[in-house]
Specification:
Radius of gyration: 23 Å
Order of helices and strands: EHHHHEEHEHEHEEEHEHEHEEE
Number of helices: 10
Strand content: 15-25%
């Protein structure tokens, strides 16, 4: 199918205040968020007029207190220096569960209660208990469904992307994008093999991985990443680093991907030639690379394009969508990114928008540059995807010079 592009401004100055507000907010989130995530649903489900029997109210409250204490402790133990996978699984699962309970406690706690009041349904206690059971029911269904969505092999999303500067010889070039596989505490070696098998059915000319391969070092997650060696492409398999590589020895991941037969595009490019026409395939390190302190790691677009003919169309791999400001200024034709997960668990995408210019899909920036943002192939942290399905993306590049279809 042909995707409809939405036009967005690439004005970096306008986006800067949003990023500043986000950074200020992020300072307080680790302290405030856990308290809100557990106390709000506790109040809505147990203490907002329900008048439950004392054992129910006491026991339920104790469970929420336990969650409030256990979640941050497990996440620190799982994602901190100790890197204990069992603790990460517990902490991440509690985080996802509390987010879903919080979201629907707020929505149904207000909207459903108001609707029941307007409809004259029951007294105060009856309405409060209806809200409780509705929140628990909705949350239970969404968590079960979200877990299945997170663990399944992604569906393929296919779209045609017309690039005005693409030569006719390159029309129909098939580019497959996978990203944000996030191999981690839950062993997904079998899932990884299934993803790679599905990619191989797409007969790609170019397969791209735009980073966040895993959470953990290459040595620790090697078994889950190993199936990437089986991916087939007629021209090239290319990779750029994501921010999570810089939490876990990024150079190790660059070396492993090279060993598995992928071409790490670390601020450099290669050429894809077909039918007498040429496409520049460029890649940059993640925007967090320079702050990692690793020698030679930084996002350097000029370096990536060094030596390339400026009249040729350019496909750029950059992990984070917000790199598109620089891409648009540099005249890039198409940027492929991931990072956002499409929000992963609704309505988290509203917070993602504070930091990124796009959350998912195809968007236009400036006069030339298109950005495709994938919702990601795997998941990070909480093993749930709610209203943000994972994807393997097949982009078919189209030239305006191609002959009309008979």
């Amino acid at each position: 199918m042909t995707a409809t592009s939405e036009t967005r401004s690439a004005d970096g100055a306008a986006h800067a205040p949003q990023q500043g507000r986000l950074r200020r907010l992020m300072r307080y989130i680790p302290l405030i968020a856990p308290v809100l995530l557990w106390t709000v649903p506790c109040w809505v489900l147990l203490h907002a007029g329900q008048h439950w029997p004392l054992p129910v109210a006491t026991g339920g409250t104790a469970l929420f207190v336990l969650g409030l204490i256990a979640m941050p402790l497990a996440m620190v133990r799982g994602h901190g220096r100790r890197q204990q996978d069992w603790a990460a699984i517990v902490g991440d699962t509690l985080l996802g569960t509390s987010w879903v309970l919080f979201t629907w406690s707020v929505l149904l706690g207000v909207l459903l209660r108001l609707a029941l009041t307007v409809a004259g349904v029951g007294g105060g206690q009856d309405r409060a208990r209806i809200v409780t059971w509705a929140v628990l029911g909705v949350a239970g269904v969404l968590l079960a469904w979200g877990y299945a969505e997170a663990r399944r092999v992604p569906r393929v999303r296919q779209l045609d992307v017309q690039l005005p500067r693409l030569g006719a010889g390159l029309d129909g070039t098939r580019v497959v994008l996978i990203t944000d596989t996030h191999y981690g505490p839950l062993d997904r070696a079998r899932w990884s093999a299934q993803v790679c098998a599905k990619v191989n059915t797409l007969e790609a000319d170019l397969v791209c991985h735009t980073g966040d391969i895993a959470d953990g070092t290459a040595e620790r997650r090697r078994a889950q990443a190993a199936p990437l060696s089986t991916v087939r492409a007629t021209r090239a398999r290319v990779y750029v680093t994501g921010n999570h590589e810089y939490y876990s020895e990024a150079q190790g991941w660059v070396d492993l991907m090279d060993e598995l037969g992928w071409e790490p595009l670390r601020n450099r490019h290669l050429l894809l030639e077909r039918g007498g026409d040429t496409l520049v395939i460029a890649g940059v390190d993640d925007v967090t690379a320079e702050s990692s302190g690793l020698a030679g790691h930084r996002a350097h677009l000029a370096g990536a394009l060094n030596g390339a003919d400026p009249d040729l169309p350019v496909l750029l791999l950059a992990h984070q969508p917000k790199f598109v400001d620089r891409a648009a200024a540099g005249g890039i034709d198409l940027q492929l990114s991931g990072h956002t997960h499409g929000g992963q668990i609704w309505p988290f995408h509203h917070l993602v928008r504070l930091d990124q210019p796009a959350v998912a899909g195809l968007s236009r920036h400036g006069t030339r540059t298109l950005l495709y943002t994938s919702r990601g192939t795997g998941f990070w942290g909480p093993p749930f995807r709610v209203f943000a399905p994972s994807e393997i993306t097949l982009l078919v590049l189209r030239s305006p010079q191609r002959p009309p279809t008979p």
